[in-house]
Amino acid sequence: MFTLEQINAAHAKVKSGADFPRYFEELKGMGIAWYETSVADGHTVYHGADGYKTTSPARYALRAIAGVANPRQFQTDLRAHQQGKTDYFTFCGQCAAQGVGQWIVRMDLHTCTYYDRHANEVLTEEIPRV
Fold first, then answer.
1. What pLDDT is attached to residue 128?
2. Which of 25, 53, 61, 122 has the most crowded CB, counting CB atoms within 10 A?
3. Which Pfam families would you find in this protein's record (predicted)?
């Protein structure tokens, strides 16, 4: 099974959203089936086979999530992040400001789905294959 140390080593290679597809493949290779990240504090729960899971600690102080999602601005911020124009912490701040409270990455579907703080879907994207 995968460990937080392995996940952290893979994450350390990510400098921007442009690196995400390679990171995704590395996590998938570890046996991670899906994971969910909370924008409020940056913790992530990683799920594997047979109910195995591990949770990372919070990555920053609690952030307020806007009560109403702004999908148009979020997509603009996401594109900039994917192009390497922002780092992870900046992107998380933008998510919070645009009402995105969580994302779930599914390895089997090759998707990342963003949700508002009420668990309504804001956007689902297919993750590019490397």
1. 85
2. 122
3. DUF1398
